[in-house]
């Protein structure tokens, strides 16, 4: 969860500086080689955190 927390802090910082457009790469190529069940969990985690931010 530390990575998700870091992204949230980064987005807060962008908001404070009025940065309106950003691009985030949240999965490394190594993560994409994980088993389907592990990727499903990561996708759900990412989706949950994004929904929380919106």
Keywords:
single chain, 54 residues, mainly alpha
Quick check: average pLDDT?
89
Rg, alpha carbons: 13 Å
Largest sheet, if any?
none
> Order of SSEs, N→C?
HHH
Number of domains: 1
Can you tell me about this structure?
By secondary structure, the chain is mainly α. The chain has one domain. 69% of the residues lie in helices and 0% in strands. The protein is built from 3 helices and no strands. The longest helix is centred in the C-terminal third of the chain and has 18 residues. The chain is elongated. The chain starts with a helix and ends with a helix. The model has no long low-confidence stretch (mean pLDDT 89).
Secondary-structure map:
Elements: H1 2-16, H2 29-32, H3 36-53
Task: Describe, in short, the structure shown.
With 54 residues, the protein is mainly α. It contains three helices and no strands.
């Amino acid at each position: 969860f530390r990575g998700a927390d870091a992204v949230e802090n980064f987005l807060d910082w962008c908001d404070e500086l009025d940065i309106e457009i950003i691009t985030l790469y949240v999965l490394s190529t190594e993560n994409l080689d994980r088993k389907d069940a592990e990727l499903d969990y990561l996708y759900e985690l990412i989706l949950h955190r994004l929904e929380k931010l919106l």
